[in-house]
Design goal:
295 residues; alpha/beta; 4-stranded mixed sheet; two-stranded parallel sheet; rod-shaped
Length: 295
């Protein structure tokens, strides 16, 4: 009697693989008995050399074969006889679907940080230049008698500040430059007109574009983000992560690992953004298919 194992996560074993095994069993006139390991695990090796999960049933000859595709590693290859490869798979990362969000820092993005730095330095330089020019004109005109020295200094500071910082913000100023300071003020007016026009144009273009934040796009970015990552326990992937060098990507991922057998809970938490998930690509496609089939 041949024995076929069901998925240890409790999901119903359906699909091409089970149908193929059933077809072979029917042609050989052989009965099938479906078993589920008590620990509901795929199989990991203990320090004493024994196995749990599906691999334990096969090692103890409590089952003759498995109809579930298992990832083969060096340890498993020493316990079971591997059949023909059915397909090649790879691992993928999944996370909640991103949605457009408001870009709070969008008002500084029309210019690069270098441009903003030069602009701020220019603002300070224009303010100080206007202040120095007004101070020289006041001293040359002998206006110190019109008010206290402190009042004149405050007036010069305020007029220079409004002229330097108000025009980039399209705010008028009652003070009008006189004498040699007119050239500096005129150049500043022209420069602020060009910069403000470019800024408004770029800002409008960037506000039209949707802001779609991606928390990570690679394994390295996932580790740097600190987002927890779910893996199914006692799989080849889980074993590779636990045995990995602490300085490797798998080794650093181990610090934020979420490990349990509740695949339904892991799927919900993944969709809610509580953690990412690392699994075989075909398993992820199956879960996505089941989710959309219910909606």
């Amino acid at each position: 009697m041949a024995t076929l194992l069901r998925r240890p996560d409790g999901l119903r074993a359906v699909g091409p693989m089970v149908s193929l095994v059933q077809l072979i069993a029917s042609s050989l006139n052989t009965c099938l008995v479906f078993l589920v390991p008590e620990d509901r695990l795929f199989g990991a090796q203990f320090p004493n050399g024994t196995w749990n999960g599906i691999m334990g049933l096969l090692e103890r000859q409590e089952a003759n074969m498995t109809g579930l595709a298992l990832t083969m590693g060096p340890g498993r290859e020493q316990v079971v006889v591997i059949g023909e490869w059915l397909y090649q798979d790879f691992r993928s990362l999944t996370y909640k679907y991103p949605v457009p969000e408001a870009d709070i820092a969008g008002f500084v993005k029309p210019f690069t940080m270098q441009v903003w730095g030069v602009f701020l330095v220019t603002l300070l330089a224009v303010w100080l230049s206007l202040l120095a020019s007004q101070t020289l004109q006041t001293n040359d005109g002998g206006r110190t008698g019109e008010g206290s020295r402190a009042q004149i200094v405050d007036t010069n500071l305020w007029n220079s500040f409004l002229w330097a910082y108000g025009h980039p913000l399209a705010q008028p100023s009652a003070w009008w430059p006189r004498g040699g300071v007119r050239l500096l003020a005129g150049v500043w007016l022209l420069l602020t007109l060009v910069l403000s026009t470019i800024y408004r144009s770029n800002l409008k273009a960037m506000l039209i574009l949707p802001h779609l934040p991606l928390p990570f796009d690679t394994m390295e970015e996932l580790i740097a983000s600190g987002i927890p990552c779910f893996v199914v326990p006692d799989t080849v992937l889980h074993g590779n992560i636990m045995r990995a060098d602490p300085k490797s990507q798998y080794g650093r991922l181990r610090r934020n690992l979420v490990v349990h057998l509740d695949v339904a809970k892991a799927t919900r938490d993944n969709m809610q953004g509580k953690h990412a998930s690392l699994a075989s690509h075909n398993s992820i496609l199956t879960i996505i298919h089941n989710i959309f089939k219910k909606e």
